[in-house]
Amino acid sequence: MSLKLNLKPEYKSAADFFRNHDNLLLLVHEKPDGDALGSVLGAAHLLQSLGKTVTLVNDDPIPDKFRFLPMADRFLLPEEVEGTFANVIAFDCGDRKRLGRSQGLIAADANLLNVDHHVTNDHFGTENIVDLEAAATCQIVFKIAQELRIELDLDTATCLYTGLVTDTGGFRYSNTTEEVLLIAAHLLTAGVSPYQIVDRVMETLTWPQVQLIRTVLDTLDRDESGMISWVTITRDMLERAGGCDEDVEGLVNYPRNVEGVEVGISFRESVPGKVKVSFRSKYVVDVGAIALEFGGGGHARAAGCTVDGDVDTVKDRVLARVREVVTAVDTKPEATQ
Ligand code: AMP
Ligand code: MN
Ligand code: MN
């Protein structure tokens, strides 16, 4: 079955890139999430079905909850790979820096296809398919598959559904469009079990994760206007909970979801002297632009950056800037859709 989708001309060029290159290095951003892994693994399956050889590399271990994804066990660390690659595709990554150490595997004159949906994407590829209307990079990969006229098998569909469901927050965020739901329905036709996937990657909490939630909710705070709210996660809290990096994901939704809040933020001490800041906004504030000012990036409604300094200093600096932006805009929900 084929879906009628809005395939812009870049999709044809991206499909040609898939067709015309072999021995490909496939990369995604460091600390990969559901969309990064779903899109790269979905594409890996497509490329294999075209008879291509692929090498999957990431700086970080694959989070446990995503290890069920078909071919997730194929990931190597950059140190485990020799030489450089002349043909490379990067997925779900707004700039080269986000590829981390894996960048070292890209040959100086490589053909590099950049497949992404971040508004802050700097078009770092030699070819770029940056579709800002896509809710997830998995949506772009699905459309490349349509352009290639490949009928999706269950493994590919499982990967693509995972990114679609995680980047839309379970089809709840403002990036949930008619096209997203049509593609999701199509993936179910290919045999995907939506409940199983969402239960694994979104609903299930590890025990350390719940302990962390208990502690972190104690730090929940908001400004005088009630439009900015935040939580703080120190290294000590994470250690006491017995948690790891991926347990922090999603905590920013607590401040975001408080009634009256426009911008929700989490401040997370990642290593001493560095704070990972996650931003979420509800209706109008472009948090991607704020994150970019602090050296990060993302989307209008979800963005992040890592800022040098101790937690209190970073918090003061970031909150001061967010306050300025919130004061300058009309944050009433009716002001936008
Ligand atoms: P997070 O807050 O880490 O869940 O990220 C929210 C969104 O912002 C995701 O789409 C990320 O890819 C993007 N993002 C997070 N951190 C950074 C960063 N340091 N640089 C660029 N984009 C980022
Ligand atoms: Mn991502
Ligand atoms: Mn994404």
From TrEMBL:
Which parts of the chain span the membrane according to its record? none
Instruction: Tell me which residues make up the DHHA1 domain.
Output: 246-326
Q: One Pfam family, please name it.
A: DHH
Q: Entry's SUPFAM superfamilies?
A: DHH phosphoesterases (SSF64182)
Q: For the DDH domain, which residue ranges apply?
A: 25-163
UniProt superkingdom: Bacteria
A single Gene Ontology molecular function, please? nucleic acid binding
Under the heading PANTHER family, the entry gives:
BIFUNCTIONAL OLIGORIBONUCLEASE AND PAP PHOSPHATASE NRNA
Q: What is this protein called?
A: DHH family phosphoesterase
Originating organism = Tumebacillus algifaecis
